[in-house]
Amino acid sequence: MSKRIKEGGVVPPHFAPHHGRNYPSALVNGCRQVFASFLFLSLLCLTTHGLAAAQSSEHILFGDLKVDESNAGEKVPFSFEILLYTLSGGIISRQTVTNNGRYRFMGLANGHYDVAVEVENREVARVRVNVSAPYKTDFRQDLNLEWSGGAGKERTQTVSAQDFYQRAPANKSLFEKAQQAMDKKKYEEGAALLKQLLAADGKDFQAWSELGTAYLLLDKQAEAEKAYARAAEEKPTFFLALLNLGRVRAAQKKYEEAIEPLARAVEVQPASADANFLLGEAYLQTKKGSKAVGYLGEAARLGRADAHLRLATLYNAAGMKDRAAAEYEQFLSKKPDHPDRKKLEQYIKENKK
Q: Which of 35, 141, 251, 348 is 20 to 30 A from 259, comparing alpha carbons?
């Protein structure tokens, strides 16, 4: 098996949330009056309290395993083992995945991890992944491998991923030191190390993104926005930078400016619940309700329970109480322990058709 992971590039959206749907005018007009308070809740992660809370295990790491069999010359294994390691070598979890299947590791804390692929107890590929953000985020790392004759008979070298910047040894050391400082919550020190690195290599999109996160943790939103924008400029398909850029602009009430990076984030990772949710919120705040509904609906389908609340409030404001009741019902199915459960159940009872 060759030792490469191909560049994922832009993944075409498998859906068009806002195309081909005719939403009632009352629904669109109602968008202008709702969601202000809810948006505040969705952006709490940018406050000091929210940033501290995000240190808990919340992130999701997922991706698709695709094995090119065109040059196999032999039977390709039916399934592969995907293992998640700590940097010290401890196994966190493992999953069995078939070709063209998807792995998903949930509940991950900020940090670096190794994702390895095994065939018949032999490791054939490995890639290091940085799972780090000041708020709950989905991280995607596809594993695109090429199977060649005899691939399973001996171990290959570490897989390289084009979404991870290749650094000179000195800059690699600076990046690792910055990561260590950030892990210890020494954000000023981390930012200083990253700026030193970027002075030597301004094209390091990962370092720009990390600098943005450091500034965000220091409550310097304007500086964070500039750093994320530079990361997205250097790597136009860098999902995390696009998502964070849109999020920090929305936090500063720059909703129009937030739409562009969030739309690009959805193009890169259409299966991101967070990107769809935030794009829907941005459209709502710019009075583009017909577009907002589609993205919020997709976010709900992808697992963002609070997207059901947004939709329910929107439908209720538009007088479409039966639809609101349906959204509340779906929300409670995902969040059965919600403190307002009884109130929502009463609303459902009174308005469900």
A: 141
